[in-house]
Amino acid sequence: MLGLDVCEFGGQFLELLWLTVCYRGIMADKEGTAPVHEEEDETDLNYQAPAQKTLQEIQELDKDDESLNKYKQTLLGTGPVVLDPSIPNVQVTRLTLMCVQAPGPITMDLTGDLEALKKQNFTMKEGVDYRVKIHFKVNREIVSGLKYVHLTYRKGLRDQLSLALVLDMNLDQLSLALVLDTNLDQLSLALVLDTNLDQLSLALVLDTNLDQLSLALVLDTNLDQLSLALVLDTNLDQLSLALVLDTNLDQLSLALVLDTNLDQLSLALVLDTNLDQLSLALVLDTNLDQLSLALVLDMNLDQLSLALVLDTNLLAEFSSSLYLTPDPVSQGFEQAVNPSLLDKAVYMVGSYGPRVEEHEFITPVEEAPKGLIVRGIYHIKSYFTDDDKTDHLSWEWNLQIKKDWDSTESCISRLGVLSLFSASCRHGRPYALSHVAFNDRHLSTSSKIKVDLDNSNGIAVMKFDNPPVNSMSLDFLTEFSINLEKLELDKSCRGVILTSAQPRIFSAGLDIMDMYGTSPEHCGAFWKAVQDMWLKLYGYSKITIAAINGASPAGGCLMALCCDYRIMADDPRYSIGLNETQLGIVAPFWFKDTLLNTVGHRTTELSLQMGIMYHAHEALKIGLVDQLVPEGKVLSTAVETLGTWLAVPGHAREISKSMMRKPTVDKLLANKEADIKNFVSFITKDSIQKSLGMYLAALKKKKA
Ligand SMILES: CCCCCC/C=C/CC(=O)SCCNC(=O)CCNC(=O)[C@H](O)C(C)(C)COP(=O)(O)OP(=O)(O)OC[C@H]1O[C@@H](n2cnc3c(N)ncnc32)[C@H](O)[C@@H]1OP(=O)(O)O
């Protein structure tokens, strides 16, 4: 049976692949060709595309094959969404940098002024994991072989590291100026040394904004006189300074050692000079991700030796960012310096058909670079293109890698979060925001859902804690989806267990209070949150197990059905099922599909029409749950089971899951808006409101 399904699916899939390949030729004619300046690294295999077909022709093919038609509809939509040929077939609408630790969404609108984007910096904290999400629309025709190309350049040194060294000498005189100016979180060092046989002047200014350290040292001496000024200003923890100065008319020795634990900066300066000879050694060693500078200068009347070592292991990587120039700014070096290409990433986006809803594509997880020298601004050229090099969109923007997120961004994001959650005020009552903890890597601060991620095995347990019955209100659903998303992005998490912190109840399903007596706007927002929860959970890439430790009606059952495996407490008091008809409401098609995909057609038919709640044993019998264990063992069995699932090669399992579930997910994605409208008009009907009211009254009466 399974073999047959897979063959059937495989056949359809191949056919669709062929159809999309056929279609590429047509597309190339219709859109402009790309000015994509990417290196040609693909081999021409002398490939001859099959005869071209229109979307309509494709839809006509095998018209009588019902299952193929369904699949085609999922992939191709029902037909062109926009007929106006002046509107591009593919419209890229926005790019989002998805990062769990980000204080808020980092999104760029690609429908507006792309020129403005060139000047805009999007900040990313160093070392964080992130993914790029692109939203795009397909309006008329299938596009195949879509690609997202991402070229990363490092800008000139102005934003990064500048070193200027000026050395001027003759037998009687030496002048040295060294300026090290790095914006990489603000370290500046200026050293000026001017000496002739009679006089030595040294000025050293070290100014680092990196937690406020400033040091100025001025030393001026001639044969009869020595002046030394040292100013040190710091509110840092752990600063040590040692200054040794020894001078007489013929000789000067100076040793300065500055040692600060604050991100490990050490400075040693040794200066030894007499009338005939000057020796200077300066060592600047900062662990702020590997910058070391050593300067050794040794001279006498006849000879000069200078050694300058600037040792940052980033030299190799960013050699083009390092220049020796006397006056970088006045020479306008930024124009003179071509930004160097650091990285080229090509992501295969795939083939897509027209539909009203936007498509979205998410890249695999990347890690932002980390370290003092890699902080700075990267210029990025993005191309949304395809195999035919059609330029669907190309734009440029800047990614700024910083030691921390921008504080202003945090404010903006907090506002964003507030507005997101003010939308979840129910009956005019704002909900507590304590659970909104985007920055918090300890995921356990949510108010309605407790998350505990065990780093030793990668298993996260999400415990519903929304008394009295874990009903899924708008804020519960929002919080659930955020946590799930966070865990999906968290590399250390490998699987998620859903369970309840409430005794005897897994979840009472959707919060009826969100549907009863509320405004159409509220109902719309609520339903969108239900959809988002389902889309996230049913299409989740990681393993999910429902540890059902209590009653699980309606939405509770749906949530369990979305998981990969269900373990239920073996207790006759607990039941599970989609009982919507008992409330006088109708489960939507994606509730139905989720049940159908689990227990089959006939059982789904009986179950939905009658609104049956199954006791644990019955649920096991019809395959609604996979295993029964004593209540006290539900969670431990779930952990054990997840362990065995984790032994399966992850990639193969994930693709298999997606193969089984994607058509169902795509169906809702293609009808999301219509489904919301349908829900709102249905649930706000007087007759339905009356049913809900009676149901609520019955619940309360039962209690009485
Ligand atoms: C195109 C249109 C599509 C429309 C599709 C709409 C889909 C909806 C899916 C749903 O999920 S609808 C919700 C269905 N849920 C239920 O039917 C469950 C109802 N509840 C129960 O059966 C029981 O409460 C329980 C879960 C078995 C627990 O029983 P227990 O005896 O322990 O507690 P109660 O005294 O019954 O309840 C305590 C308290 O909680 C209130 N409550 C219960 N369920 C809900 C709920 N789903 N939403 C809001 N409030 C709920 C109940 O009224 C009690 O409140 P009180 O004020 O303390 O009396």
UniProtKB/TrEMBL annotation:
Location comes to: Cytoplasm; Mitochondrion matrix
Which GO-annotated molecular functions does the record name? delta(3)-delta(2)-enoyl-CoA isomerase activity; GTPase activator activity; Rho GDP-dissociation inhibitor activity
Q: Which reaction does it catalyse?
A: (3Z)-octenoyl-CoA = (2E)-octenoyl-CoA; (3Z)-dodecenoyl-CoA = (2E)-dodecenoyl-CoA; (3Z)-decenoyl-CoA = (2E)-decenoyl-CoA; (3Z)-hexenoyl-CoA = (2E)-hexenoyl-CoA
Instruction: Tell me the Pfam families matching this sequence.
Output: ECH_1, Rho_GDI
Q: Part of which pathway?
A: Lipid metabolism; fatty acid beta-oxidation
Tell me one GO biological process term: fatty acid metabolic process
Provide the alphabetized UniProt keywords: Acetylation, Cytoplasm, Fatty acid metabolism, GTPase activation, Isomerase, Lipid metabolism, Mitochondrion, Transit peptide
Tell me which SUPFAM superfamilies the record gives. ClpP/crotonase (SSF52096), E set domains (SSF81296)
Q: Which CDD domains match?
A: crotonase-like
Give the EC number(s) under which this enzyme is classified. 5.3.3.8
Q: Which parts form a coiled-coil structure per UniProt?
A: none
Q: Does the record's keyword annotation contain Acetylation?
A: yes
InterPro entries given for it? ClpP/crotonase-like_dom_sf, Enoyl-CoA_hyd/isom_CS, Enoyl-CoA_hydra/iso, Ig_E-set, Rho_GDI, RhoGDI_dom_sf
Name the family the entry cites. Belongs to the Rho GDI family. Belongs to the enoyl-CoA hydratase/isomerase family.
> What interactions and quaternary structure are annotated?
Homotrimer.
Q: What does this protein do?
A: Key enzyme of fatty acid beta-oxidation. Able to isomerize both 3-cis (3Z) and 3-trans (3E) double bonds into the 2-trans (2E) form in a range of enoyl-CoA species, with a preference for (3Z)-enoyl-CoAs over (3E)-enoyl-CoAs. The catalytic efficiency of this enzyme is not affected by the fatty acyl chain length.
Q: What is this protein called?
A: Enoyl-CoA delta isomerase 1, mitochondrial
- Highest lineage ranks of the organism? Eukaryota, Metazoa, Chordata, Craniata, Vertebrata
